[in-house]
Design brief:
The complex is a heterodimer of chains A (376) and B (246). Helix content of chain A is 71%, strand content 1%. Chain A is mostly helical. Chain A has one domain (96-230, 237-371): MetI-like (MetI-like fold). The longest helix of chain A is centred in the C-terminal third of the chain and has 31 residues, at 341-371. Chain B has one domain (4-244): 3-Layer(aba) Sandwich (Rossmann fold), CATH 3.40.50. In chain B, the strands form two sheets. A six-stranded mixed beta sheet of chain B has the order 6-7-8-3-9-10, sandwiched between helices. Chain B has a four-stranded antiparallel beta sheet with strand order 2-1-4-5, with helices on one face. In chain B, helix 3 (98-108) packs parallel to helix 5 and helix 5 (143-155) packs parallel to helix 6 (173-188). Chain B is globular, with a radius of gyration of 18 Å. Classes of the chains: A mainly alpha (376), B alpha/beta (246). At the A-B interface, helix 12 and helix 13 of A face helix 2, strand 6 and helix 3 of B.
Chain lengths: 376, 246
């Protein structure tokens, strides 16, 4: 069979003039058929695998779509939901405010809503490189101030809202973004310290990183929440949310530091020598030459850690904070709606997935932009 | 050709237990062109890298521009500002454009105004004949172009001494000439130069003094005419016969 094919294929390729062109491809549906025959149905084992996969998809996809979309109950109450065969999205319609904002006073939900939208808007603007200048930093200062005023209240006639009542998506975003924003510079310092020539600095950084990496985040949060107050003098209290936030920062920084160190080690010695030979100081060399190159290299592992941190914020539930996942769970406290917990968790999962996917896609684009033209 | 600008006095250096520089003494005078050659592993690169303290020596004295090299970081930084260096592997900064590579040190080390730094950078890019590449990244240039950028980058600091550490060894053969031409031109302008190189044609044309090193020691120091026609040392003769054979 193959022997029959080859001469004719060669005859197609060779033009009389001697010029060589790539063999012409098949067109339209024939091309798809050919592709399927070559890739999916070429050996008995592959045929079996293909059929197995098709059967699996046939068994899973239509029922899933039926449950999630076609037979789903979009409005109504628990009674109508129980009669329906599909998902009960009416739950989300009914409870979305509790899911999204947790224990925040119901009448004041517009405040975390505006704060969240403002935050997302700022993130959207900041993702565009053309806005990367001094004005953006000022905009962030202003935005953070507005968000803080909205969330805390107590000024401008806004009702004060204690941080223990903060919850839902705004809390998750706060813990994740503030965690990343503070942990990132801290991790750079730790990574540089780990490679320092000064033995004391190096020992402190290595000790810190190894200590934090050696324990689970849950225990760091527990320490911050339960142990830490025991060591504080009488009467001094540190906000519970702040303690959890610090725990997340310390934990994330240790992991990020190792990612950054990987980037530092990838910079060839010649780069350091060229910078030294010009008379640049240690900090000039680090900030102007080493870090810009090192951080580019470690975008993938860093974003990996960012995504991980974003999802790990759900662990603050163990110290009694109402992050997004805990708030979603809380919305099921109503016994009427409790049977529809799957819908609630799917809703939470979708929100987490959207943010993580956006981070991932954005980092890919950033990587391409920054690498353009700079390859060695 | 008057006062010494680089002075090595009985310099010794070890890498671990390996004795890389053995009792090296050398004088380079202002405006002098010194070409250092020798078999690989003879310590030539280590020696030249001691001048701006990319390597530390362990015994003896090195004086550059009247300042003795020690652990005094400020003194070393002052010397490095005044000593340009060109490396075998170019070592351009790949994340910066050519013009940014050139203006970096003048801006941050010399604290020069932006306009002035850019003007100087363009001046030297023209000198090395690639002004049109100013806004490209190093990775987009050929090896010869990259090395010429590296030379221009060093010159932007207005150094009084230029060190070349095998500047053409990493280049494809057809690009060696464009780099040597730039170096020859620079030599013609009275720059003090120390070059580690195997380009004997360049050495013959440019050098005031030839230095031959072997096993970490300076074996022979003589003017090129004498060095090439009547080398005194057996090792030098051997080396020259090998390198000039083809």
């Amino acid at each position: 069979m193959r022997n029959d094919d080859e001469p004719s294929a060669a005859a197609d390729v060779e033009e009389p003039s001697g010029a060589v062109y790539p063999p012409p491809g098949e067109a339209g549906p024939m091309r798809l058929m050919g592709w399927a025959r070559r890739r999916l149905f070429n050996t008995p084992a592959n045929i079996a695998l293909t059929l197995l996969c098709l059967w699996f998809l046939w068994e899973t996809v239509p029922p899933l779509l039926g449950w999630a979309l076609f037979n789903a109950q979009w409005t109504g109450d628990p009674t109508t939901c129980r009669e329906a065969t599909g998902a009960c999205w009416a739950l989300v319609g009914e409870k979305h405010r509790l899911m999204l904002f947790g224990l925040y006073p119901y009448d004041e939900h517009w405040r975390p809503l505006i704060a969240t939208l403002l935050l997302l808007g700022m993130l959207g603007v900041s993702s565009q490189r053309r806005f990367w200048h001094r004005g953006l930093a000022l905009a962030w200062v202003a935005a953070v101030t507005v968000m803080a005023v909205l969330m805390w209240g107590g000024v401008l006639g806004l009702r004060p809202v204690d941080t223990t009542l903060w919850g839902g998506l705004p809390l998750t975003l706060l813990l994740a973004l503030a965690g990343i924003a503070v942990a990132f510079p801290l991790s750079i310092v730790l990574a540089l310290g780990r490679r320092s020539d000064l033995p004391v600095v190096r020992a402190v950084c290595v000790g810190y990183i190894e200590l934090i990496r050696g324990v689970p985040l849950v225990s760091v949060l527990f320490m911050a929440s339960v142990m830490f107050p025991l060591f504080m003098p009488e009467g001094v209290t540190v906000d519970k949310l702040l303690r959890a936030q610090i725990g997340i920062i310390l934990f994330t920084a240790a992991y990020l530091a190792e990612a950054v160190r990987g980037g530092l080690q990838a910079i060839p010695r010649g780069q350091y020598e060229a910078a030294d030979a010009m008379g640049l100081s240690y900090w000039q060399k680090t900030v102007l030459i080493v870090l810009p190159q090192a951080l580019r290299i470690v975008i993938p592992p860093m974003v990996n850690q960012f995504i991980s941190t974003f999802k790990d914020t759900s662990l603050v539930t163990i110290v009694g904070l109402f992050d997004l996942l805990t708030s979603v769970k809380a919305s099921l406290a109503d016994p009427e709606w409790r049977p529809f917990f799957i819908e609630a968790y799917v809703f939470a999962a979708l929100i987490y997935w959207c943010f993580c996917f956006l981070m991932s896609r954005y980092s890919q684009r950033l990587e391409e932009d920054l690498m353009a033209g700079t390859r060695r | 050709m008057t006062e010494p600008i680089i002075l090595f006095e009985n310099v010794d250096k070890w890498f671990g237990s390996f004795h890389v520089l053995r009792d090296v003494s050398l004088t380079v005078r202002k405006g002098e062109k010194v070409v250092v050659c020798g078999p690989s592993g003879s310590g030539k690169s280590t020696m030249i890298r001691c001048v701006n303290r990319l390597e530390e020596h362990q015994a003896g004295r090195i004086v550059v521009n009247g300042v003795e090299l020690s652990d005094d970081l400020k003194a070393i930084e002052a010397i490095r500002r005044d000593v340009g260096m060109v490396f075998q592997s170019f070592n351009l900064f790949p994340h910066l454009t050519v013009i940014e590579n050139l203006t970096l040190a003048p801006l941050w080390v010399r604290r020069m105004p932006k306009r002035e730094a850019a003007e100087i950078a363009m001046h030297y890019l023209e000198r090395v004949r690639i002004p049109e590449q100013a806004h490209k990244f190093p990775g987009q240039l050929s090896g010869g172009q990259q090395q010429r950028v590296a030379i221009a980058r060093a010159l932007c600091m207005k150094p009084s001494i230029m060190l070349f550490d095998e500047p053409t060894s990493a280049l494809d053969p057809e690009m060696v000439k464009e780099v040597l031409d730039v170096m020859t031109e620079l030599a013609g302008e009275g720059m003090t130069m120390v070059c580690v190189t195997h380009e004997m044609g360049f050495a013959r044309a440019v050098a005031d003094t030839m230095v031959f090193m072997a096993d970490g020691a300076v074996v022979e120091t003589s003017p090129p005419a004498e060095f090439f026609s009547a080398p005194r040392n057996e090792r030098t003769r051997q080396f020259l016969s090998q390198i000039l054979a083809h």
